[in-house]
User: Fold these one by one.
Assistant:
Number 1:
Amino acid sequence: METDSPALRIRHLIKVFTRPAVDGIDLTIAPGEFYALLGPNGAGKTTTLRMISGLILPDQGTIEVFGIDAVAQPRRAKQLIAWLPDEPLLYDKLTVAEYLEFIAGLWGMEVRRAEHNAEELLRRLDLWQHRDERCEGFSRGMKQKAALAGALLHEPRLLILDEPLTGLDATIAREVKDLLLERARSGCTIILTTHIMEVAERLVDRIGIIQRGRILVEGTLEELRTQAGRSNATLEDLFLGLVSQHAGTL
Amino acid sequence: MPWMLHHELRLYLRSGVVKGTSLISLIIVEVLLHLMAAAVAFAVRAAGASGGSGTPAALPALLITGGLAFSFLFMLSRSLNGIVQVLYTRADLDLLLSSPMAPKSVIGVRVFTVALTVTLEVGMLAWPFANMFVLFGMTAWLKLYVLLPALGMLATSLGIVLALTLFRLLGPRTTRLVGQVLAALIGMGIFVLSQLPNLLRNGRARGPASGSGFGALLSANNGHFNSLLIPGRLVLEGYGPTLLLALLGAAVLMLTVQVLSGHFMHAATAIGGMGSTRPTRPSVRPLRFRSSLRIVLIVKELRLIRRDPLLLMQLLQQSIYLLPMSLVLWRQSVGRSGGVPWFWLVIIFMCGTLATALAWITVAAEDAPELLTAAPPDRATVVRAKIEAALLPLVPLWLLPLLIIGRSQLWFALLLGLCAFGCSVSTALLQIHRPPGKRGGLKTRGRGSPGKAFIEMGLIIAWILACGLLTWIGLLLQH
């Protein structure tokens, strides 16, 4: 693993299903950066994230995670990554503690470290009292928190989140946002997709707007405003303007 | 009301037992059933014309009584399941109950749909026979068009009573599970009933009348047995009892809906208001994790199986279905073939079917496949552990012959154990390339790939034959 490598470097990534879902994306994210990939439905956000996570293989292009070729050496790359989709990857018949034990086993964690991390995360996410309850009885928010605990358990260096705040109430959404910010501050690289512009506006360092499998613009919020020539525009205004502007050109 | 019935039937056709079955394949099956029925009707008429002296007088009554019992149990099992589903399908029921329609009408239509669908399920198998028998001059078979709906209505009424009784006794959290388990148990009853002739069969008796246990009973003119045939005799007597049964069915169903719709609404409301979290005591245990990936994977699979009562029920069903066959083989093998208890071959079949099901659950019906794909271990490691998890519960079955007949038939017990092991492993390995499925689809997993299901069954039979052949060779060498 190269120490001075970017957390994520994608070059000319292409994935075609019936039509191109991802059409030549180039993207570089620095270690410790909090990055949001925004775009309308069907823009290619989830497909891009799934390729980075090793869930689907790209048709063309390269993906490097901290200098590791994620396509050629998926096991090494996956060791550094955590993937959290919008639908929590849980087992209804397992308790939270058992689920975390399973995750620790999958990532080959040392037992003491796993137990310590699990307790810390469960306490942090207010799930400690519920650790011996099966996930089937949990609300949507509790399930998402349990899945987040699973994703953070092995201290991933690259955290990939697909719509992590969908369907969460305000309290739980705040808890999740706070935890993500904490992780970003402690050096974890985070890339997320969201339809909630306010989340991207307040949480992330850089934003990429994707449409029809291509990144239209990327940069900090200020950079996006400068590029659009609208110094006081909200992210929502910028996003809607860009998407409608490029709707006919791509 | 008709539009809602139409809506309900459309939902049933798109998500019920005929899911995935196209109209064309349904028509083909019906045509084939009619052809089969025509052959049977022709044979029955020919036997009747030639005097049919070998046929016991009570046989038609027995066939009708048996058919009615079989149909009723099947309908009861299906209707109990249907009523439980009606109670627990939230979004749909909430939508209907929030509309201006009277709740009693909503429940009435739902219940009527259950009665209609269970009737159709049996009717699609039985009515082709009625059609052909009528065509060959046996007009009494027309009664099936009245009898089956009557039974459907009675079974649905009983299904409602059972479901609401369970709700009253167990509450909203447990009723669904126990209801489905009870429906499965009733389904098992059908299979045991269908195996009754085999269980009663006297291995040494032969001949048209005495070739079966029923035959022996019929010829013995057993008083208790004859009283069991009253439904069949009543149906044979004329149209009166049949029409009476139909009227009774309709009256009972209407009365049930009228009397119990309030309770039904209460149950549905209680289920809707049920919280998503179970009140539990706070946890006090510290976290204790295991370190090995293999152990963690195996433990996880065994936990998921152990904690799914419906799944366990389906697995248990597969074994219970084999009990009547084992009994028959045991009775036939006593005192034969140099004392080799051939019925033990059933254990190979049991191991094969259980290994197939368990390996399908662990490998193909993974609840979170993306989690495993996103994790570092390669697929081969994960699948190996999953197959091990599927085979672990079968270890006692591999050892059972050794423990029970090891003293008297050591070589046969060893051979059985080895073949049971081989059958389990080979059938489990077949599941590696099965398409992904959901645990709930255990029973219907063969629909998507009938070829693979055929190969699985062929493999199990091959292991049984191999064991039988080796045993036979062993016997030859002994003598």
Number 2:
Amino acid sequence: MDTKFIIALLILAIPAFNFLLLGLGGVKMSHRTAGLIGTIGLTVVAVLSYYTAITYFFDYGCMEGAYQPVIGPFPDEANPAFHWLQFTDHLTLDLGIWLDPISVMMLVVISTVSLMVHVYSNGYMHGERGFQRYFAFLSLFTFSMLGLVVATNIFQMYIFWELVGVSSYLLIGFYYTKPEAVLAAKKAFIVTRFADLGFLIGILILSYYTNTFDFAVLTDVNGPVLTSPSGATFLGISVFSWATALLFMGGAGKSAMMPLHIWLPDAMEGPTPVSALIHAATMVVAGVFLVARLFPLYFILTPEVLTGIAYLAAATSLYAAVVACVQTDIKRVLAFSTISQIAYMLVALGVSGLGGHEGLGYMASMFHLFTHAFFKALLFLCAGAVIHAIGSNEMDRMGNLRKYMPITHITFLIACLAIAGIPPFSGFFSKDEILVAAFEKDKLIFFCQYFVAGLTAFYMFRLYYGIFWGTERDYGKHLPHEAPLNMSAPLIFLTVLTCCTGLLPFNELITSDGRPFDLHTEWGIALPSIAVGVLGIVVATVLYRRPNPLPQRMADSVRTLHRAAYRRFYFDEIYMFITKNVIFRRICSPVAWFDRHIIDGFMDFQAWWSNALSFRIRALQSGSLQFYVGVFIFSILVIAGLLIAFVF
Amino acid sequence: MNDLVQLMRPEMLLLAQVVFLLLFDLFAPDRARRHTDAVACALFLASIAVGFLPSTTGEAFGGMFTVTAMTQVVKNVLSIGLLLVFLQSRVWLSDERTSFKKAEFYILTLSTLLGMNLMISAGHFLLFYLGLELASLPLTTLVAYNKYSDESIEAGAKFVLIAAFSSGMMLFGISLFYGAAGADGLYFDVLSSRLAATPLQLLALVFFLSGVAFKISLVPFHLWTADVYQGAPTSVTAFLSVVSKGAAVFALMFLSFRLFAPLFEYWQYVVWALVVLTITIGNLFAMRQDNMKRFLAFSSISQAGYILLGMIAGTPLAMSSVVYYLLVYLVSNLGIFAVVSILENNSGKVHISDYRGLYRTNPYLSVVLMLFLFSLGGIPPFAGFFSKFFVFMAAADQGFYVLDFIALINTVISLYYYLLVVKAMFIADSENPIPTLHTDSWSRLCLTLCLVGTLFFGVFSGIYAFLSSGAWGL
């Protein structure tokens, strides 16, 4: 087997092994050992991922001027056709490793953020009950997410997709004695499972009409799937539109697009490092990754679905940004900010074309995914440090913390500047490319995203001032203090990444067709976007730097809007109304009645007759031999008589 | 001559063992006789191992005795069953009331097995009948083995009388065939070509097959089963319910495929009715039993119905499903009997109500018994699920959907009473549970073997694949 695949398999195997080790043997270990095992394992994984990325990009990935997917370890010369499961003559399910620009990029993102979260968790979760369980789940999640990005076919992806979902469920509900955490875990699982139903149906439709699960076939622009697709339709719409839309439903569930976003804010009940890993940097971008992975399919066969995605994402990003402006729980602000930023990435994919400069949106989306992962993880980890120091998520319990937590303060500020799109931090570069791509394709979306960029700067600095400036609160006897080294070191490392990742030449490495293209900064768009970011910061500074009555007065002037935004535009209420009144009452109750009376009734009837009959006939087993013999001969005669009568 | 030795290898080995054990019991010193179990088991194990060696197929004695790949397989299956019975009966045999005559147990069971083998390989009515009698008469003695127990004596008396009666019925059927087809018509392959659906031949068919149905204890020829099973020593019951029944099933299988194939379409109607009756009646009676051995008697009656369900299709698929079903039934049921016999030997208790709270005192035995019961009930992933699946499939393959449906409903009913036992062990509480027992190593070995079979026969598709490949060589 090729070395690169051995390394790739190791990247998967180490967290899987750690999960088993910590899950089965964790109880017998000390906290220190468990944390060390998880962290060292992840360090190795990160190093191997970096090695894979470097060798892919600079050694074997580029063939004939374009980055090609490298697929293995099967089939190779020794195993010409390795099929894990054969469905039909044409449809087989293989397992393998797929290395291409976006998957190795994801390897880097996942292993880096996961490593940082592992290190950070050693401090953050110190002394918690279930410390070993926590690290076991982290390993499971990392394994699943890494497996998801290197999947060679959509079914393999689905397997890991579900594993990711279940590990997210386990981690959100980590504090299982807290009712809110249990409810949040349940909600996240049910909502994403519901979305995954769409994903599964999409996979089935797609594989039925294309006879393949393989990404290699599905995304081959010269292949049979994209050049001569089946013309079948359902309800007047092409089956491929159904398939890709349903696939995206799964992605929308994981990536918290409207209206399936309702689980993400609640998922903040999990430990904060988990939020940084799963609900900011990795799992929630699975939807983006899915669309990017199948991008040729979306773009060539179903451009209308892609456009739909762009509009849905634009609406989601605006919605989430507005809601983020009025939340008071700092993790919720970050959650809505995450929704908004992921929507940004999907907007970029939605407005993208295929190949060369046309594919700017694709590249920008991946670029933003990359930069966002680091600065958003950084924001969450900073928030975790603050929560760790204060013991609360609520902004009105915080204030003037810059005095006590200088490192957290500076790193948080840099992350805020990055997300606000201020150069030279990474967010500026990626966000700018998205705005350029949107401007070239659709002005409406552009203005929407432009406005969102301003809002982003505003709510992030509202958060920043609320935590680190403003009035000092009564912190009691234990004054807040800076986080310990194992928590602040990841903050610093991520800050470094936030400062430099913007300079990476994504246009040469990760493009829609694998070929590099020229890119210049479009100052005509970059300058206004910096301006709107600065404007948002200025407004936030005026309103929140020092305590003043202005914010309250503004909120009062648009009270209805403020209330609606604070209650997240009543999405949860609508869901509850629909589930309780429509689904439970109109659908579930009749089904339950049918189950209880018809199905159970049939079974009860069975029990009744068999019981009654067995009581009646029990005397036949009398023990009298004469009777037995009588029955014997009588039965022979009856059977023979009936048989002869029947035949003649 | 060499051919004859090859063809009759299992039978000759059995005969040699019987003779050796007879002489051993007579002439060996007491010190050696104490190890009769070990000697008998070792010999038998060796003969089983020989049975797995490749063998020739063909006919002997001018067509009286036939050997095919499939007969060899089923003979091996029966031998394994008997070995499991040997393993679990050792403790009972070492009891002071029986230890002095334990060689007889081995001699009699081995003779029975010899009779069964002859029955399975028979190509002529005479040999078939002789085999049947050889398989029945020693059983009578075995049933009455505990000769100071009234129950055992009563069971023996009932068994010998009803067996004699059924032999009479069968002989009458054979004589009718003789009348219909002539003297050389007693050869199966000759008779087969002369079979026609005349009233006389149909009558002969029913009389003849009633004798086999009696051995399989199909309803309505089953009434002796519960009384005899209850009265006989538990190890003998195990032998009766698995090995003896299995042999009769195999004999019936070969008869219906080889001999009665021309009448099969008519025979199917009878089988249809018998399946429904057997499964349902067996279930209905099993529900009300408290004595574990009676309970198992009715359970085994209903299981026989499922076996017959597999046979009704009359296809090679049906045949392999039947052999597979029997193999799985063999390990599951013998496992149950092993547990029952351990409990009975140590505490003298055989009632389901005595099993209350067993999990507290004997957790391993309870869990193992539960797994066997689950397998008999057809719960996945145990082997019993797969064996039921295959017989259902064989029947559905030939369009017996209604029959499958009835059998399926009965599966649910059977779950009820299997779970009653589980409930007694795990959920119900007792003030006076069976105390914690020590299990001897032979029984433990038997339980382990049965457990391995129950857990893995279903999962390893190789076994079923092997059987279905052998089914073609009828």
